[in-house]
Design a protein that fits this description.
alpha+beta, 6-stranded antiparallel beta sheet, binds methionine sulfoxide
Length: 163
C-alpha cells in the first residue's frame, strides 16, 4: 500500500504532488467509490496544513448530500445554490473563501471554521459532487489550492460514480 510522505518544510505544490500521487495510488484497481472517496479524505486531511474538515458532497437529485469526510459532524444535505458548496456546484468552478463570515450564505456546519475552498467534480457539464476543505485558520486556502484540487477532482471524476 502507498504511504503518504510529506517531508517537513515541503511547499504547498510539493504537498499537492504527494496528495495527487497518493490518491492515484490508493484508488488504483479499487472499484468501490465510497472506499476510494474515504481514503482520499484521509489523504487530504493528513497532508494539507490547517485542514480541520475534508470531505465530499455528492449531487443526488437537486441536493448535495454528504459523502465520506474527516472532521466534525457536518450538514447532511445542502439545497441547490446554498452555501459555498452550492455556489461552486452552480458556477461549475472553484470557490475560495478566505473569510467565511464575509461569504453571504455560508453554511456554518462547524462554528470554528474560518476559511474554506470548494471545487466541483465535473463530468462534462454534469456536477457529480464537490470536494470541500475547511480550516479553523483564516485565509488558509488560495488559488494554488483551487488549481490543485481541480486536478484532484479530475482524478475523482474517473472513479465509478453511479449513472
Ligand atoms: N460550509 C459549507 C457547508 C459544508 S461544511 O463546511 C462541511 C458551505 O457553506 O457550503
Amino acid at each position: 500500500m502507498h504511504t503518504l510522505h510529506v517531508p517537513a518544510g515541503a511547499s504547498k505544490l510539493e504537498i499537492y504532488a504527494e496528495v495527487l500521487a497518493t490518491a492515484a495510488a490508493v484508488v488504483e484497481g479499487e472499484p468501490d467509490l465510497v472506499a476510494n472517496l474515504a481514503n482520499i479524505t484521509a489523504v487530504l486531511k493528513q497532508a494539507l496544513p490547517g485542514v480541520s474538515w475534508a470531505g465530499f458532497y455528492r449531487q443526488v437529485g437537486e441536493d448535495l448530500v454528504l459523502g465520506p469526510f474527516q472532521g466534525k459532524l457536518a450538514c447532511t444535505r445542502i439545497g441547490p445554490g446554498k452555501g459555498v458548496c452550492g455556489a461552486a456546484a452552480d458556477r461549475r468552478a472553484p470557490v475560495v473563501v478566505p473569510d467565511v463570515d464575509a461569504f453571504p450564505g455560508h453554511i456554518a456546519c462547524d462554528a470554528a471554521s474560518r476559511s474554506e475552498v470548494v471545487v466541483p467534480i465535473l463530468r462534462g457539464d454534469r456536477v457529480l459532487g464537490v470536494i470541500d476543505l475547511d480550516s479553523d485558520r483564516p485565509g488558509n486556502f488560495d488559488d494554488i489550492d483551487a488549481e490543485q484540487l481541480v486536478r484532484l477532482a479530475a482524478l475523482v471524476e474517473g472513479l465509478a460514480w453511479p449513472a
